[in-house]
Write a structure and sequence with these properties.
0% of the residues lie in helices and 66% in strands. It is built from no helices and six strands.
Length: 95
């Protein structure tokens, strides 16, 4: 993966790092993994992942995933997960 620091933003009242990543193509022989890009939001003080967004793709298939965490008693717990996928068939139709 290639990681990039995009800056500091706010999430649920905390300062968080915004880190983007992208899957690098593997040149070694063997099974190939699907491509992936995404963003991680990590607190600046405890380094806790508080939100993640990812897009995975292979050939004509795409899956988008988002995970949101909510702070409760100074700890973060997952509270909302979203996964959406699609297949782009010939003729640019989406299934």
């Amino acid at each position: 993966y290639t990681f990039s620091f995009e800056g500091i933003t706010s999430y649920d009242g905390d300062h968080v790092y915004e880190i983007t990543y992208q899957y690098k193509k593997d040149t070694l022989p063997g099974p190939k993994w699907p491509g992936a890009t995404g963003t991680l939001y990590i607190t600046t003080d405890t380094y806790t992942i508080v939100k993640s967004e990812e897009v995975r793709f292979k050939n004509h298939d795409t899956v988008r995933t988002s995970v949101f965490y909510h702070k409760y008693n100074n700890r973060y717990y997952p509270y909302h997960l979203v996964r959406d996928g699609g297949t782009y068939a010939s003729g640019k139709r989406v299934h």
